[in-house]
User: Fold this.
Amino acid sequence: MSENFFLDNPDLQFRLEHLDLAEVLERKEKGFSEWETYPTAPRNYADAVDNYRIVLEVLGEICGERVAPRAAEADEEGAHFEDGQVTYAAATLDAIAALRQAELFGAMLSREYGGLNLPESVYQMMVEMVARAESGLMTVYGLQEIASLLEEHGDPETKARVLPRFSRGEVSGAMVLTEAEAGSDLGAVATRATLDEATGQWHLNGVKHFITNGLADVSLVLARSEEGSTDARGLSMFLVERDDTVKIRRIENKMGIHASPTCEIQYTNTPAILVGKRRFGLMRYAMNLMNGARLAVAAQALGIAEAAYREADKYSRERVQFGRSIRSLPAVGRLLLSMKVDLEATRALLAETGRWVDLWKVHESALAEGGPDADPALRARHKLAQALSETLTPMVKYCATEMGNRVCYQAMQVHGGVGYMHEFNIERLFRDVRITNIYEGTSQLQVVAAIGKVLNRSLDPLLVEWQAAEYPADMAAERALLVELTGLLDQAVGGLKAVPERDRVDYYAVDLVEMAISVVGGWLLLRDTNVAEHKKPVARAYVASIASKVRAAAEVVLAASPVPLEAIPVLLQ
Amino acid sequence: MTDSRPIDSVVLAKQVPDTHNITGDAMTKDGTMNRNALSAIFNPEDLNALEMAVQIRERHGGTVTVITMGPPKAAGILREALWRGADRVILLTDRRFAGADTLATSLVLQKAIEKIGRYDLVLAGRQAIDGDTAQVGPQTAEKLGIPQITYAEAVLEIADGRITAQRALDSGTEIVRCEMPCLLTVVGSANTPRPPSVRRQIAGKLAATPGEYAALRAKWPEFETDAALEAHLDAHGLRIPVWTADDIGASAEAIGLAGSPTQVHKINFVVLESTESKTVPPTPEAIAAMVAELVHEYIVG
Assistant:
């Protein structure tokens, strides 16, 4: 068989089989009514899932046969910059050509604009495979949130002009947010947007940097539209279609994802179109974009980790030391086991997050259509989906990208000295994964985004449901342990909520968020054992691995000792 | 590429066992192929022929029709052809076609192409990875009475009813021009076949011959009767036509085993056993001796 990154990955196939999207698709496919109009629309749920399988199989083969074999070359050549022009590496261009021929662009756009109308959950599986093949390519293919935001908030004329071009893969997108003095603190953005009152035309002036895929033809640019304002409330979102007024000044020389050009862009009286409402640029649209991008980066880290695990697995089978395969050494087995279990737990968390994000989106559209008379049950469901999406998204971004870094580290350990050498794929993966827990918000910012929700017990509806559910009899011990750990999480939440000083809460936030991730991951894997025998050893190993960590973290959070905070001004002065 | 006239192509395809990915049980004990152990795939160079035809259509307009002679399950590669860009596919299947050698096969293809009627080009892969004869394309051209360009690697120009193509030969390349209609056999270096389009595959996943309705309905029970399924397929242009010997007017004695003069004289069953190994010391002399031995045994050089 040819290489296929979907067909060679039983866990990804398992996740597709158990997507549980009936509620999402009933709304998203408008009661499965579109097939008379659009030849690609499904007739029913099974048909829809079968379509997703087709998408994943076709993409899986492109990734395995065409993209991955040239990943080292894409890294080596990288994107170039000459005379103000950015060019992708030859391998990247070939990959884009294949994705275009396979008509894989416009994944999440609606069929009205030529899209595939895929749910977020399926799209993240696609991103994972692309990243496993070549993580730099993910930033070209994996930022389709940009088109989705336009579909949600753009004006009809712009949408009709731009979106079909996204669907055909003729244009790619960029999210243009960061500036030199506005990184994590996007409220400080200074790029100016000025409105010519006479013509109604907006123009942009300013410099943006660290812009991933900044050569894109269509960009969403965050700029200050309210003169004299200094904070997030003065920012709006603009659409820019690249022309001569958009100058790329340089691209960065980075540690990894070399195929992805990171650009510095200067706008000089650049014509722009306002997207959505003024003043909502950061708080609503940029946050929207980033939530999608955070899921995509989580999927990217998962894909890189999958690649790293496979490299380590393969190497451990081939390498003989002390007269035996190193795989049979407990120290190596421990690394491999940790990697495999972490991968499956993260994939389960990403799938669950994707499901809630999909539910949120479909209920949001339903509410918009229903207006003020919308059914209260729908409102409640929407509220729940929103709260869980906003909690789980930063959690999975944190979890997947930290896991990705850990797995690449462990995979290099399995290789020993050769893993440090440029000739081995793990060396590239180790460099590539490092950006994932930095961009789209560092891990530290993900904790900030998640902690308020965790303290507000946003996860409780899930935890209550999972504790009440039935599980296989031979998983009773794991269930009991998870009930205990869930209780500890609950106590820790109560404990940290009671801490009066904000700094002390922020200091211990990471411990609490990690506890929550472990507990949620444990329940998700236990839930999988209801439908799959092969998930039992995974769930057992995972729950065993988190138990002591959760207990220790609970102790730390409950104590919430002021000692380190007091030490900072003394020791770090 | 100055000719604006649309070009209609017929692509000849074959479903073959995947001999490039051999598994341990690929051969039976008596030395014949265990077809169940190998997956059935689109013959690789036929994909190159299809890609060439689709590219010609993209440049000049026209149509691409893919035909295959084979058992009913060969419909699988016809679906794949639709997903990779073919406009129309036809399955040539008939119990009487079975056991055909290259002569009988090319006769069936000739009759089918003549039934299709209008065409400018016939494209086929250079050879199939199971039989490796490379005869069916040339024989079909002879039977059709049209010129042929074998080992075609690139189409350089189509203009004024003529095609200019580059041939890949052992000794280099050759550029030839001939009148259309003509037949090209296409080599693997010609192009990289495009992947299936997900949109075409989703829209065309139900494409089927009537013989496949039962299996299709088992998977999609919402079609309660064959008639309901067929109505759906017809409405969406997804019924794959099947032509038998009678449909193409091929006489029984000229096709299948009866029409095949080829007789297999003998099959050699070679078992490679790599039990012996030799340790070569890391000295210049020993390495030189090893190279000399490999050359002598025709393993290298």
